[in-house]
Amino acid sequence: VEGQGLCCSVCVCLLQERGALGFERHYHVTDPFIRRLGLEAELQGHSGCVNCLEWNEKGDLLASGSDDQHTIVWDPLHHKKLLSMHTGHTANIFSVKFLPHSGDRILITGAADSKVHVHDLTVKETIHMFGDHTNRVKRIATAPMWPNTFWSAAEDGLIRQYDLRESSKRSEVLIDLTEYCGQLVEAKCLTVNPQDNNSLAVGASGPFVRLYDIRMIHNHRKSMKQSPSAGVHTFCDRQKPLPDGAAQYYVAGHLPVKLPDYNNRLRVLVATYVTFSPDGTELLVNMGGEQVYLFDLTYKQRPYTFLLPKKCHAAGEVQNGKTSTNGVANGIHLHSNGFRLPEGRAQASPQVELPPSLERLKQQANEAFACQLWTQAIQLYSKAVQRAPNNAMLYGNRAAAYMKRKWDGDHYDALRDCLKAISLNPCHLKAHFRLARCLFELKYVAEALECLDDFKGRFPEQAHSSACDALDRDINAALFSKSDNAEDKKGGGPIRLRATGRKDSISEDEMVLRERSYDYKFRYCGHCNTTTDIKEANFFGSNAQYIVSGSDDGSFFIWEKETTNLVRVLQGDESIVNCLQPHPSYCFLATSGIDPVVRLWNPRPESETLNGRVVVDMEGASQANQRRMNADPLEVMLLNMGYRITGLTSGGAGGSDDEDSSEGQVQCRPS
């Protein structure tokens, strides 16, 4: 009996401990805490920009790396500097990592001198120096289940793997992006999935983010070495650097088509940071030159990209050299989400009534729309969509707000909403018409014409409306102009596959991987990421309830993950916020940027005076950032130097699309 009592006591203690841990993880970041987040302290000790931050596993140590080539280890809870050492680097430090299972004794740094250094903090010495890269090292990654192993990403296009148990103390090339994308490709960031340490995400030049299976790569290379014919190749035999299935690409569906336009305006697309959610099921990407994107790794979806007219492949879809019937309907080719527009003339269908609380929310959104408060309308519709995900009217209304706001990516999100609305209600007249308009705005002119013709057949009473006539004129004018973009599409294959020169030539394997890319789930707007290539975005909260990102305007932005709504903006730097690293178990955030300090943020007491770092006008800040992203690079440079540019600081937000002044009832009013 005594033994049983002891056993029961131990079980109760374990259950209480697990319950307390679960409670802490669920509630350590909540909405009231986010709305009270403010500056707690500034940690001073560096003499240059602070480019990287890293918590240890327990969260009682914080490491920082700087342009001053020093690393500092802090006690952030008591605002103390515990250790400062010169790393031996001769240029800016861009990445710092604690080596797992080293008792927080081993610290790894990567820098602009192309070197990776390993330091023993107990003796303040650099114990290993790796000089295998030939260009700047931008990120280091570690994995809990690989205690002696780490990886680096550098601007020579290589991902290297290091094993400190190896006597040679050398690294091996795990992934060579130049074999796929040419000599000009640069690797910018990487991270390992916390729940599957064989899954490695890599961000590089261009809009595509890559996910690799480390185990498959190693097994492939072992089998190649063991094969009797490993050294014998015929003229036609080509050794693949990666085995089939070892790589999966992700991309925001509209970006490959936008890439030529961005290049013409010297607007660079590059993934500056990638990170997994705590449960490993989501991948977050801060896309330089664009927005922040979240990819669902479990419920994947193909891009809603319209690539070919039906008349070119009437029998089915040609994808990766194979023909299928997936995604082709009524002249509209969806990349392969399997969505089909219903056949025949549309018939009226009853609208599903919303509960009173959601009806009020929808009316508030409609009122915001009527007042041309597009972002406010989008946020209210998004709240309603989260609570009523099967209501076609809400998706249709939000699409209208996206189309009016016209920020980067808004027309693609509107297209996605239109398709969702039609899938829920095939007779949604406005969604059908807006779909045609979105296709036109996304430069799929021929597909827009077919979609508009389909709309006229389904809704003949609208065939001669002012909105239809206006879109018809726009489409025909675009077809007649024979724009450069249209000529590019005739060149054989989608724009996303084409290279512009020998040095950035794209391999056949790369073309196939890009065509198999998956689309994003959520998009987060408001920040600006065009000036630096180390800007981070992170999950905040153990359940990844929030998304945080730095910005070129010196602020950092916080969004609700599920609604994508912006909930808080705080000034974190006098110039640019680059780094944001949430504490592993508290509502505690460390940030840094151009200022030579590390700033710590947590919920402030309700009795504390007004937080002077809160950006009250979040909408104004977001609009200014959209203008900044679409501005001429020279204007941005002058703005950063303190000059005021009239064209940049005035006018409407969202930039590259012209306002459509001639649209009729069918498009502009929400339902």
Automatic annotation (TrEMBL):
One of its GO terms (biological process) is negative regulation of fatty acid biosynthetic process. It comes from the Eukaryota. Residues 650-671 are annotated as: Disordered. InterPro entries: DCAF8, TPR-like_helical_dom_sf, TPR_rpt, WD40/YVTN_repeat-like_dom_sf, WD40_repeat_dom_sf, WD40_rpt. WD repeats lie at residues 43-75, 86-129, 540-569, 570-611. The keyword Repeat applies. The keyword Repeat applies. This is WDTC1 protein. It comes from Indicator maculatus (spotted honeyguide). The lineage of its organism: Eukaryota, Metazoa, Chordata, Craniata, Vertebrata.
